[in-house]
Amino acid sequence: MNMSIVMPAMVNNATLSIQLNTSTEAPLTDSQDNRTETLQEYNAVAPTYDWSPETQGLILSSLNYGSLLTPIPSGYVAGVFGAKYVVGAGLLISSVLNLCIPLAADAGVTILIVLRIIQGIAQVMAITSQFSIWVRWAPPLERNKLITISLSGMVMGCFIILLTGGLLSQTTGWPYVFYIFGGMGCIYSFLWFFLVYENPMNHPFISTDEKEYIMSSLTQEGHSPGWSIPIKAMIKSLPLWAILLSTFTTYWRFYIVTTYSPTYMNSVLQDNFRDTGILSAVPFLISFVSYLIGGQLVDYLFSRKILRLITIRKVFSVFGVLFPSGLLFSLHWVKFSHNITIAFLMLSSAFGSFGEIGVQINCMDIAPRYAAFLRGVSQVFSYTAGAISPTVAGYFISLDSEFGWRNTFMLSAAIDIVGLIFFLIFSQAEIQDWAKEQMDTHL
Predict the structure, then answer these.
(1) Residue extents of the structural domains in the chain
(2) Where in this chain does the record put each Major facilitator superfamily (MFS) profile domain (predicted)?
(3) N vs C: which end of the chain shows fewer Cβ within 10 Å?
(4) CB 64 within 8 A of CB 386
(5) Within 196-272, where are the H helices?
(6) Which CATH code is given to the segment(s) 232-432?
(7) Residue-by-residue DSSP string for 330-384
(8) 48 three-class SS
(9) What is the pLDDT of residues 395-436, one digit of tens each?
């Protein structure tokens, strides 16, 4: 998220400033005047670059280019050998590279893109491998709550960087965004190595009763799959394909929102960079709350047998796709109102979290023994969407700055609904036969 919030500050907006002053003979409005002053402040505290919208799209999406082949081996290795060192290494490498981004930007676009590709690989190691921890730590009736608390950390991170990134860029310069959060990541990485344990049996602080409760609740789901992976059965599994396709379509929308929200507010709503950061942050705070509430609600409905688990997954998916897609698609027609646009973005994030709960945790339902590996496979689809969607959005916007945004959100809604339909038809929540026993096919 660091790059998303500082991108408007990194780009040379001289042309935009000229347009603001020459496109009409009327005097500048207060918002335009404030924005021009902000641009001048940015140019004074940090370097800027002449990057076209297509180049910006490539830089924003490059984080996902090297990620396409990494999730599967990361999830597999973490599932076999444990996630502690895989996740820790990914966190540390990504944080160190974050410190180097300002130097890479000065060196050139190619160097910057290469660095972000490597950084994306490191982040995949951390994001994908953590699912193997929950296989060993999360009792089935508490699983949704625990995993959504974990996932909510990602949107809280987005909230913090968006809230503070614009202010830091405007006061100290955009490079300090990378320095501060990269340094924090390095510190956290070392804490991870000291505090995290692979399973309850090796943890020195929890009680014996807690260890026995966790271990006994997980006995029915088996243990680590070892080196054997039922590849053929997975390829033929429609419930698995429902997760994978829905992951692709959901993250197509997710990456557009996360990477282009600051740019949309800055260029369309004419907000200054500080306000852009704050306004872009609020939807993620709402999403954070939605994650926590949604996880608690799923466990409540499931543990009390109010609804079947598959029904819960599908209902959450419907809310998590139809509402966000409809709201984003409507932005083109409500851009005249700043307040309505912000409200739509907030509601989109709130409902979007429900889609994550409906789809992303489903791999723990159908194959808990292979959860880390399947999380890696699903990440391939999500990063594929992340590699394509910002580039496509940048292309649309470069063709037509006004209707490009409309076309971007229209395409996103269409893709999202296709994934939802497939998920509603083919998804399941029971452990699949191929996840209960070892097959003959090996990886």
Answers:
(1) 1-15+40-140+172-209, 232-432
(2) 1-431
(3) C
(4) yes
(5) 208-218, 231-235, 238-267
(6) 1.20.1250.20
(7) THHHHTT-HHHHHHHHHHHHHHHHHHHHHHTTHHHHH-GGGHHHHHHHHHHHHHH
(8) coil
(9) 888 887 778 888 999 999 999 999 999 999 999 999 898 887
